[in-house]
Amino acid sequence: MPAHVTLILDEAYNELTPDPAATKAGLETLPGATNFVYVKVPDADRLQKALKAQNILIRGSYGPEWTRWSRVSCGKLEDVARYAQALPTLVRA
């Protein structure tokens, strides 16, 4: 793949990872260096169900202490783009 195409894809992916998508939606994230990010939302289980209704799969809460934290893995660019597009609307619903 030509270097300029790789650079464009890298820039697009960096823009569409869950962390910037959450930040643009006004949500807090936990720092990390993994293939997933924790996003603070009003209700992780409700968000999971709303995203699932749109064929977007993420984890729900991790028990009573983590009901406001949603774990979102980085996936295919088009999947993350769908998540990034749906997130702002669903967390305010």
Please tell me about this protein's structure.
With 93 residues, this protein is mainly alpha-helical. It has a single domain (3-91), classed as Aspartate Aminotransferase, domain 1 (Alpha-Beta Complex), CATH 3.90.1150. Helices cover 48% and strands 11% of the residues. It contains 4 helices and 2 strands, in the order ααβαβα. It has a two-stranded antiparallel sheet with strand order 1-2. Helix 2 (18-24) packs parallel to helix 4.
Which properties best describe this structure?
93 residues; mainly alpha; Aspartate Aminotransferase, domain 1; two-stranded antiparallel ribbon; 4 helices
Question: How does the SSE layout of this entry go?
Answer:
Layout: H1 3-16, H2 18-24, E1 36-40, H3 44-52, E2 69-73, H4 77-91
How would you summarize this macromolecular structure in one to three sentences?
By secondary structure, the chain is mainly alpha-helical. It has one domain: Aspartate Aminotransferase, domain 1 (Alpha-Beta Complex). The chain is built from 4 helices and 2 strands.
